[in-house]
Design a protein that fits this description.
CATH class of the largest domain: Alpha Beta
CATH architecture of the largest domain: 3-Layer(aba) Sandwich
Number of strands: 9
Radius of gyration: 18 Å
Structural class: alpha/beta
Number of domains: 2
Oligomer: single chain
Bound molecules: adenosine-5'-diphosphate
Shape: globular
Order of helices and strands: EEEHEEHHHEHEHEEH
Number of helices: 7
């Protein structure tokens, strides 16, 4: 195994918090793997992915976090600056080096092309659909050619058809560019559609892991797909019960 990211016994508390939101979390990501984190709201998924993004959280942290230099994050709604055009938003994902404007523009156009958004380069976010905005958000993340792509519920606000389309494109990009993906999802269906590995979290801990041994593209109507979903749903339910008791 050749990990690109490693967490070892990570315990984390926000500087203004009174309790730890991650407890002794240990896990690693193999290069070129696709992992999806699932778990109930508030269990620490976003905190974990922010630590993986190296976002300087004002906090107390124990344990070790080892992350790659080249990483990018995609947020739920694309998180575009409304007063910047699509291409300017994508350029924001590139490191700024003086005197390299044409290079930056070339890279940004390439990234927009990857997401089939070339013809919308000059469009403003308000004139784009939710799916198109998220395409720009993903293009911005890809522009800097990250080794690790982090996605925090990127498709949760989109309609099912757009989500299916973006799932296919994300899988193509993952395969063709050899990147490593860590993504948060609140949808088990999405997790089983995309992930090689599903990590189940509960109350700041990793409580289960699954290897999804199915070829792509996956058929959500197949029996085995349903079995993975049912198993994870059962695990989450068990945990909820143990909290209520
Ligand atoms: P999830 O992504 O699974 O919904 P989060 O990582 O967002 O979970 O939150 C985990 C816990 O950390 C929650 O109890 C939440 O209230 C708390 N939390 C999240 N962000 C902050 C913050 N900036 N300051 C203090 N507490 C936070």
């Amino acid at each position: 195994m050749n990990p690109i990211l490693t967490f070892k016994d990570v315990t984390f508390r926000y500087h203004n918090g009174t309790t730890d939101v991650l407890h002794d979390v240990s896990f690693s990501l193999e290069k070129r793997s696709f992992t999806v984190l699932v778990g109930p709201s508030g269990c620490g998924k976003s905190t974990l992915i922010k630590l993986a993004a190296g976002l300087a959280l004002k906090s107390e942290t124990a344990g070790q976090v080892s992350i790659p230099e080249k990483k990018s994050m995609v947020f739920q709604n694309g998180a575009l600056l409304p007063w910047y055009s699509a291409i300017d938003n994508v350029e924001l994902g590139l490191p700024s080096v003086r005197g390299d404007t044409s290079y930056r523009e070339k890279k940004a156009r390439e990234a927009l092309g990857l997401m089939n958004m070339s013809e919308y380069a000059d469009a403003m976010p308000r004139d784009l659909s939710g799916g198109q905005r998220q395409r720009v958000g993903i293009a911005r993340a890809l522009a800097a050619e990250p080794e690790l792509l982090l996605l925090d519920e990127p498709f949760s606000a989109l309609d099912p058809e757009t989500t299916d389309e973006l799932h296919r494109e994300l899988l193509d990009i993952w395969k063709s560019r050899g990147i490593t993906i860590l993504m948060i999802s609140h949808s088990l269906d999405e997790a089983v559609t995309l992930a090689e590995r599903i990590v189940v979290m509960h109350e700041g801990r990793i409580v289960h892991e699954h290897r999804v041994r199915l070829d792509y593209p996956r058929d959500p109507t197949s029996e085995i797909f349903g079995k993975y979903m049912a198993e994870i749903r059962r695990e989450l339910k068990e945990k909820r019960k143990s909290v209520v008791k």
